[in-house]
Amino acid sequence: MTPKPQPFYKKPWFLILGILLVSFNLRPSITAVGPLIPMIREDLGLSNGWAGFLTTLPLLTFATFSLFSAAIGKQLGNSKAILYALVLILIGTVIRVQGGPEWLFIGTGLTGIGIVICNVLLIPLIKHLLPTQIGLITASYTTGMSLFAAVASGISAPMAIDLGWGWRGSLLTWAGLLVLGILIWWPQVKLHPKNKKTADTHAKVNVWKSSLAWNVCLFMGVQSLLYFTIIAWLPDMLVSRGFSAVEAGLILSIMQMIGLIGSFLAPMIAVRFKDQVGIAVVIGFMYLISFSSLFSQTHWVNYAGLALAGLGLGSSVSLAYTLIGLRTHHQKTTASLSGMVQSTGYYLAALGPLLFGITFDIFHDWDFLIYLMLSCSVLFIYFGAKSGVAKVI
Length: 393
Prior knowledge:
With about 400 residues, the protein is an all-alpha fold. About 80% of the residues lie in helices and about 0% in strands.
C-alpha cells in the first residue's frame, strides 16, 4: 500500500522557509527609519537627539526583553512565542504611523519587543530542530535579515518621496511582509509545540558568571553599536556632503547589499575552524580601514570605504550569532546565553545613535561619528579575540 504523501507544510524546506521569512521581518522596521529621519524630524518637530532615539528605542527594548525572551519561549514553546512576536511587530508597525510623536515611539517600542523575542529564540530553535545545519541555516537567516535591512534602507526614501507616500506610508508598507511571515510560520506552532517536561541530565549553567559569556556579550554590543549608529546617521552625514536623501538611502542600501556576502560566508567559515579569533581580527581591521576613509571628502574614496564597511557589518552580525551557538553545549544554555548576549549587547548598542545625536546637537561636527566608529573598531578586535577562543560554557 502506497504511503500517504506528507503534507508540504511538514517538510523540512517549509520550516527553513518559515525561518527565512521570520528573518526578513527583523530589520526593516529599524533600517527603513534612517533615510526618513529628516522627514520625520521636520514633520513632527523632533530634535536630533529625539530623532536618534528612534533608533535607540528598539535597542533598549531589545536589551530589556532579551532577559525575558528565553523564559517566554520556555513557557509558550519557541514556535508559538515567535508567532506571537511577529503579530506584535505587525501591531507596532501599524500603530507608529497613526499620529504624533507619542504613537511613533509606542509603536517603535512594540516592534522592538517582537523583534528581540524572534532574535533570541531563533538561535536555540535552529540548534534543536536543525542541529547538523547550524552553520548553513545561521548563514541563511542572517543573510536574509541583512538583505531586507538593505532593501528597506534603499527603498524607504523613494517610496516616501518618488511615490508620494510620505514617511508614514513608507513605513506602513512593511506590514504586508509581516502578514506573509505570520501565515507561513503558523503551521510550525502545531508541528513543534512546547516540549513536555523531561528529565534533564545537563547541569544548569549560570551564564552570568562566565567570563567567556561576558566577552561574547561585549563583542555583540560593539558590533551592534557600530551597525545601528551607522544605519541611523550615515544617510544624514551623506546629505550634509551634498547627496540627496534618495542617493544617501541608496548608498546605505548598497553598503548593506555588499554585506550579504559577509553575512553568508562568515558563519560557514567560522564553523570550519577550532576557534574564531582570526576571522574577528580580520573583520576589525576592515572596519579601521573603511571608517578612516570617511575623513576624505572624495566621493570614490567614501564609496570604497563604505563597501568594505558593508562587508564587515554583514560578517560581524553573522559571526556574533554563530558564536552564541558555538560557545555552548546544550540548547538551554544556548537560549540563556542568547538572551544574556542580546540584552547586555543591545544596552551598549543603544548608546551609539542617541549619544551621537546629542553630541552632534552640541558640536555640529560629523567627524565625531568617525571617531566613534574607529574607537569601536579597536574594541571589536579586542573582544573578538577574547570571545573567539575554542571554549564552551
